[in-house]
Amino acid sequence: MGSGRQLSLPLCHDLTLPSACTSALFIPLRSSLLYVYYKGNRVFSRRFHGRLYDFEKQLVETYGRIAMCFCSKDEKGDEPAPRPAQQQQQGGDVKHEGRYGENATGGPYGQQPHQSYAPPSGQYAPPSGPPPGGQDQHQYSLPSEPPASQRQHEHAPPAAPPPGQQQGDYTPPPGPPPTSSDWAVPPPEPAPSYSRPEHDWQAAVPDTTLFPDPPSFFSGYDRSHTTNASEDEANAGEEWCQQYPLARPLVLDEAGQAALQAHNIRLMQPAGFDGKLNWLGTGHWKASTAKGSPDRCIIGYPPLYVVNSHDPTRLNQPKTIYYEVKLLPSSREVSVAMGFTALPYPSFRKPGWHRGSLAVHGDDGHKFTNDRWGGKDFTTAFRRGETYGVGMTLRPTGTAHPKVDVFFTRNGVMAGGWDLHEETDAEEDLPVTGLEGFHDLSCAIGTFDGLSFEVILDPARWMYREAK
User: Fold this and answer.
1) Topology of domain 241-467, per CATH?
2) What is the mean pLDDT of residues 106-128?
3) pTM of the model
4) What span, in angstroms and rounded, lies between the C-alpha atoms of 307 and 299?
């Protein structure tokens, strides 16, 4: 019967039923109360919706005076169950109910006639939700407009400014009203663009011409394009170096020390030299070679760097050695080489080709350090009438090994240099033994073919003044 769940079937006793009604039954459902009674051989039913208070009201209105008591199946005796406590309503006179079915005077509901029933006095508020009788037919919805009693009091904005402000102080807001259609002032700034920028390959791949030059060991050559020496001569120079190892540092006598201090260095003419070597003054020589003359190496004595006199690790001060070569305008070729070498050195080989020697070659501008192949890029080829200088500076480092720098000048101006212990190719480059400051170092000038040049060992004649 209905959609509610029947928990128990409370019976009704002592009821005043309609005429010819023999018995009745009240069945509480989830949100209603089902009233069933028997009349003759037929069964009739009626459903009451709402709260328990409303059930009683509907029963009184329908059947007049009734008396109800609810009993559970598990309860014993005929005493009625107590009625649940009712919340008091604020304000006015409110009826206080005692037991279920009794009012404040102690009499049961239904003792008074139907005409004398009235709701409690005071502020009466209707129950929330739709009326009990219309819950099953339609859904309750709020009214679309306020009650008729309040329509005449609709709110309207004030016609004047607030009381705290004078009417003369009121000014309209700047700009056109919001509803104006002729206002077409563009925004001060364009709207931000959220489009993805296009890929800029020029920014992703920088210009490689701005990169620094690669390390010099990448510029090594297997053979110089101006070379004139054969492989047999290179092998002969290596055999000579193996036969005559590097000498121990010299102990100069008084004459040698005096010559070194006066810069009066003597250039020794090598064996098989096809040319002339003339002394022009203290530390000043002139040399010339015939056309087609072979490779030769002119070495000076005493050495410009003497370990026992200039060792920077022992004296704790740097030592610089330097000299210049002037290529005369009348020179047939520019194939002169200038550098330094430890002693002894094969006189039939240019400096820089074998152990313990370095040089800059004028025919291709390459630098050579114990390199019998093609050298490495360094400067441009020499030109007639210009003066070139080569030097080495050995500085103390606080260790047993000094720092060695090589520098090169052109017409009295610094034109390049390198660190003796720069990064090199471990497979191709050979050691720099003999040039690290542990052996004496002499000036070495290489010649080939027809040349005319001057060698300047006197600092007073140098174009590069800083070397003094």
Assistant:
1) Jelly Rolls (2.60.120)
2) 53
3) 0.55
4) 18
